[in-house]
Amino acid sequence: MKRFTYLIIGLLILAACKEEEFTPEDAFLQIYDDQNYNVSYQPTALGASDSNIFILSERRLDVSNFYGINLITTELSGEFKNEQQLEDQFVAPTKDLIKLGSTHYFFCMDRNTLRPHLASISASGDLNFTALNMSTSYPLAAGLNRNNELILLSYNQDSRESVMSLVSIDGQIQNQASYSIGAGNNVLEAITDHFTRRKDRLPFFCGQAPNSSYYFNGFYNFTMSLVFTDLGDDPTGVIQGQNTDAAMKYLLPIGGNNYAFIAYQFSDHFLSGSTELSANSVTSSVNYFNRKVPEIAPNAISKIVDYSFGTDEYAIIASETEGRQVILYFFDKNTGDLINTLFLGTLNPFTFADLEVFEDGGIAVLGTTFLADRFERVYLQKISRTQLTEII
Amino acid sequence: MKRTLLLFIGCLLLSQLSFAQKRKQPKKPGSSDFLKTQWWLGIRSGLNFTNATPIERFPGFYPINYDEESLEKEYMDFERPAFHVGLDITFYHAGFSLSTFPTFFKHNITYESGTSWIGDAENERFETEYTTNQSVTFIDVPVALKYDILDGKVRPFAMAGAFYSFVFDANKEVAIRETDYASGTAITYNRTSINSNNKDEFLNNWGVLGGIGASFDFWNIRTVVDLQYRHSFNNVVDPSARNKESLFLAIGEKQDDYRLSNYSASISFVFPLRYIDSQFKAL
């Protein structure tokens, strides 16, 4: 009897030691379904205001081969609020929502004139478009500099140049530099295939380095290249890829000339939590091939974000696996060491589109899952800061 | 929670005291004290049927362009039997008994849900149907007052009380059936069945109980048969676990908030503690 008593008391104590609880906003997995048999969602970017989460998504249009734009707004708990289908005049959104104050920004283009527009989303979800005063070009990627100016990477087919522009939040071009893709080469087909998804999407991105110079991943000198520039006539350094078959995929400056990066060489991937990249010479991305990462799927979308716990700083590299799960690598920014790896996704295939750090210290992953293994729908998964404490 | 813990530990210590009493000088059976005041201890088991009543419903995924109600679950009332087993500890005095029966009490709950995707053409239609069997096991600690309506070898009684249940284990199985209209007519097939432990999704439970039964005194064993109804007042589903990533959430199977009601039939075999020697034989 005594043993039984001790057993029961032990069980009660175990029951009393309940696991930590989460509020609905802390951690969740939400899936947003559309009853239309023929609809397929392609989310591209994620952002959050004080009261809303914004999911930028692409949709097929009957009137154009370019993709139209949807904006899904949810509560901070991921509960669906509404979906706006933007006018089909606007297509091809850039793949980041850039937050300045309480407003989010992205670039897109007019499908008839191919003129880039700056789109803004207010904290309550209202959209506004401003046409940019620049010649016809395709908006490829967006970033932010330390003066709170937007960085736009675009392609000008008339001059066959990759164009870096600094754009104020009211749509004024503050500075601009153009770099030739090389004589005799035509990358328009690759770029239109990127937008229309006839072939795989290309890893365009841009940003500002710690030394205040800029970088972009785009076409330069016949190939997808990582170009370092101070917005002068010529690049200060180039890390060349190999046509569109090899290049950098995403990078995050982490101090000095050190970067966390993920890159691809044909169907192989390689990555690093901290590597010094040469920003003042011409090298090749394959020079930085350190180890094949076999789990990452060919053509997977990748992104890297900063994350910190007090003075500890991390780079989180997100991508998609061969097994259709999302994978997050946690690297120590100071040492470049891998700290942990987290897989997301269970029974259904899960693809990766974007990763964001929220103001409450949680991170959110955006992508698609396939309901009944056939209907591609948007999912949003948030991982709380408490959960991240256990992972890191 | 702490108060309930202390109450339960107190009950267990009382039962320990009852064991201690066996070392006292036994009284002979047949004395009037035997009938007036007695401790009984034994084992108890039986079957029960549970119904889940939704408090708030939550769809498995958020519909963008259709009615959320179409994703509501349909609960089966008192459909699948479940088993319970535990102890029966009773203190009897002058026709009244105070009983507690700490029990491993399993509840079986069944519900169905489904959705469909429809296109413009007749053959652009696809349906899924989930049948979910959820079992939850609690360590159930009831306290009930019994009144013996008649005296004698067969003693019918009525009882009422309350219970507190500590969640112990839970398991969910989702069977998926799909219907494809690819050829214009419906072809239905069993897709798969997913089974996983989901104890983290449940909370402790409490409520009231009432019932009727009868005791049969033959040889030195009392056999007690009873029928009980239990009604819980709180939501047994943990809201904070609802949206956490899981096998089930990924396929759009998400728990509603619900409370439980339950019918049970039990049989107990109990021994009079004051007249048992160290070999557990009645004197």
List keywords for this structure.
heterodimer, A: 392 residues, mainly beta, 5-stranded antiparallel beta sheet, B: 283 residues, 11-stranded antiparallel beta sheet, 12 strands, disordered N terminus
Could you explain how this protein is built, in words?
The complex is a heterodimer of chains A (392) and B (283). Chain A is mostly beta strands and 392 residues long. Helix content of chain A is 8%, strand content 48%. In chain A, strands 6, 7, 8, 9 and 10 form a 5-stranded antiparallel beta sheet that branches. A 5-stranded mixed beta sheet of chain A has the order 15-16-17-18-22, with no helix packed on it. In chain A, a hairpin with a 4-residue loop joins β12 and β13. About 2% of the residues of chain A have low confidence. Chain B is mainly beta and 283 residues long. Chain B has one domain. In chain B, strands 1, 3, 4, 5, 6, 7, 8, 9, 10, 11 and 12 form an 11-stranded antiparallel beta sheet that branches. In chain B, a hairpin with a 6-residue loop joins β8 and β9. The longest helix of chain B is centred in the first third of the chain and has 19 residues. Chain B is elongated. The two termini of chain B are 41 Å apart. The chains are: A mainly beta (392), B mainly beta (283). At the A-B interface, α1, β1 and β29 of A face α1, β2, β6, β7 and β8 of B. β1 of chain A pairs parallel with β2 of chain B, so a sheet runs across the interface.
